[in-house]
Design brief:
6 strands, alpha/beta, globular, Rossmann fold, about 240 residues
């Protein structure tokens, strides 16, 4: 009992120490992995959630390596517009409603991406389940699952013929360790956490079901990166990628 009392009393210090250890690990390992995605060149790449955070940084890196980037954004494209690159195509689409993707389906098919990076994310601000109103919960659940995992399946169906013809070589789904069930030790964020778990399961199923078409499909957890949905992240996207 005394041990539990001491842990509770020093919880803030423990969290601070944990964040310090994570920061040291990031600084130590980043130089070894700093150019891990810079080998991709001369490709057409579709990136969702591309106007900020990880998506924006990925767009910058891909454009700098002579790739053509198809950037899907939700509300505004201010950051993308600042790139002022002829190889950048911007497409506005609210992915929280899957039917919206049908409105841009023809344009996507005409642009013919060879790589798809599903980066767009919906975050429910760590709101605890007991604090939700039932109508608000299911409204946010619907939007969250659409953005965080179901859009992946929607894009697969749109590009299935291209996948079968070996014209898409890679699908990368940006996930989170919040979706790893064994690491879920804190309250709140039920929509984000469960949808990322679902994303991981969907990714695994797709990687097996579509393996015969010579396509790589995998999820990637980028680490404690500071974004709009993760303001307490330890590193900025431009440093991490």
């Amino acid at each position: 009992m005394r041990l539990i009392f001491l842990i509770k009393k020093n919880l803030k210090k423990i969290k601070l120490l944990r964040n310090l250890i994570l920061a040291i690990k990031v600084i130590y390992y980043t130089p070894k992995t700093n150019s891990k995605i810079k080998f991709i060149k001369n490709k057409k790449i579709l990136i969702t959630g591309a106007n900020s955070g990880i998506g924006l940084e990925l767009a910058k890196i891909m454009l700098s390596n002579n790739n053509k980037v198809i950037a899907i954004f939700n509300k505004d494209s201010n950051n993308l517009s600042k790139l002022n690159d002829k190889n950048l195509t911007k497409i506005k689409c609210d992915l929280s409603l899957l039917n919206n993707i049908d409105l841009i389906k023809k344009k996507l098919l005409n642009l013919s991406p060879q790589i798809i990076i599903n980066n767009a994310a919906y975050f429910d601000s760590n709101l605890k389940f007991k604090d939700y109103k039932v109508t608000d919960f299911f409204y946010n659940l619907y939007r969250g699952y659409n953005v965080n995992c179901f859009v992946v399946l929607k894009l697969i169906f749109i590009f299935l013929d291209r996948i079968k013809k070996n014209k898409i070589s890679l699908i990368l789904n940006i996930s989170s360790d919040a979706g790893i069930i064994s690491k879920n030790k804190s309250m709140g964020g039920i929509i984000y956490k469960s949808s990322k778990s679902t994303l991981n399961a969907i990714t695994k199923c797709l990687s097996l079901d579509l393996k015969s078409y010579n396509i790589n499909i995998f999820s990637f957890h980028p680490g404690p990166i500071k974004t709009k949905s993760n303001p307490d992240g330890l590193i900025s996207p431009n440093f991490a990628l």
